[in-house]
């Protein structure tokens, strides 16, 4: 593999931290993803994130029609072990899953506890497109005033996220990545509202 497991993974890490600290700020992993020269059944940028996030101290779960194949790749590359959705530290929801499966998985992801809020899940979600747009209005720490984002993903995920993150500091953090390797992070502290004010039937275009 052409990917440098030190230099390139550190570069990806800095981009994720930058996006997580400034919710709504879109970064791009194309430089790193282009160096992944294997077909693992997921976006190459998703594989970069797996190599950045996973190690022997954490667990993960892949939600995909190709779960067995992709899980095997991630395990071989990171030595991390898989676990059930309810227990996994990192949950990878890939583009080929149905809306209902995505929502079910999101509901099951762990939120930590009041004593150990860090024992929560980070959910990595593949989607067609991430771009600047006024579909979602973002406010909260790291944002001056408001930020805006458009994410092509269907379902009532915003409402589910609101329920999951209702008892701060418990909650889940989200990382979205698209086909062009754009990346956007939504930490649990970010508040999301829908342009027009409705949480029902939300979908991307």
How much helix, percentage-wise, in residues? 25-40%
As residue ranges, the low-confidence spans are 198-205
**Structural domain tally:** 1
In this structure, how is the largest beta sheet organized?
7 strands, mixed
Gyration radius over CA: 16 Å
Lateral strand order in the biggest sheet: 1-9-8-5-4-2-3
Secondary-structure-derived class: alpha/beta
Tell me what portion of residues adopts beta-strand conformation: 15-25%
CATH level 4 superfamily = Bacterial phosphonate metabolism protein PhnH
Which features would summarize this protein structure in a list?
205 residues; alpha/beta; Rossmann fold; 7-stranded mixed β-sheet; 3-stranded antiparallel β-sheet; 6 helices; 10 strands; globular; disordered C terminus; alpha-D-ribose 1-methylphosphonate 5-triphosphate synthase activity; transferase
Task: Please give the structural blueprint.
Layout: H1 7-21, E1 27-28, H2 30-33, H3 44-53, E2 59-63, H4 67-78, E3 81-82, E4 90-93, H5 99-108, E5 122-127, E6 130-139, E7 147-151, H6 157-164, E8 173-178, E9 182-186, E10 191-194
GO molecular function: alpha-D-ribose 1-methylphosphonate 5-triphosphate synthase activity
Protein name: Alpha-D-ribose 1-methylphosphonate 5-triphosphate synthase subunit PhnH
Pfam families: PhnH
Structure characterization notes:
With about 200 residues, the chain is α/β, with parallel strands linked by helices. The chain has a single domain, classed as Rossmann fold. The chain has six helices and ten strands; from the N terminus they run αβααβαββαβββαβββ. α1 packs across α3. The chain is globular. The protein starts with 6 loop residues before the first helix and ends in an 11-residue tail after the last strand.
């Amino acid at each position: 593999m052409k990917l440098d497991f030190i230099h390139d993974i550190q570069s990806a890490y800095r981009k994720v931290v930058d996006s997580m600290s400034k919710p709504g700020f879109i970064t791009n992993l194309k430089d790193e993803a282009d160096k992944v020269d294997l077909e693992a059944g997921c976006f190459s940028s998703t594989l970069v994130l797996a190599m950045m996030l996973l190690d022997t101290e954490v667990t993960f779960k892949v939600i995909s029609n190709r779960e067995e194949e992709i899980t095997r790749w991630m395990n071989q590359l990171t030595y991390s072990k898989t676990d059930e959705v309810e227990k996994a530290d990192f949950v990878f929801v890939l583009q080929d899953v149905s809306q209902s499966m995505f929502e079910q998985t999101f509901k099951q992801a762990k939120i930590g506890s009041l004593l150990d809020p860090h024992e929560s899940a980070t959910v990595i979600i593949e989607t067609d497109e991430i771009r600047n747009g006024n579909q979602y209005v973002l406010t909260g720490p790291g944002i001056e005033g408001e930020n805006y984002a458009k994410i092509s993903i269907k379902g009532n995920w915003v409402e589910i996220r609101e329920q999951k993150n209702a008892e701060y500091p418990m909650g889940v953090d989200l990382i979205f990545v698209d086909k062009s390797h754009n990346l956007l992070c939504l930490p649990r502290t970010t508040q999301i509202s829908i342009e027009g004010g409705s949480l029902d039937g939300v979908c991307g275009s």
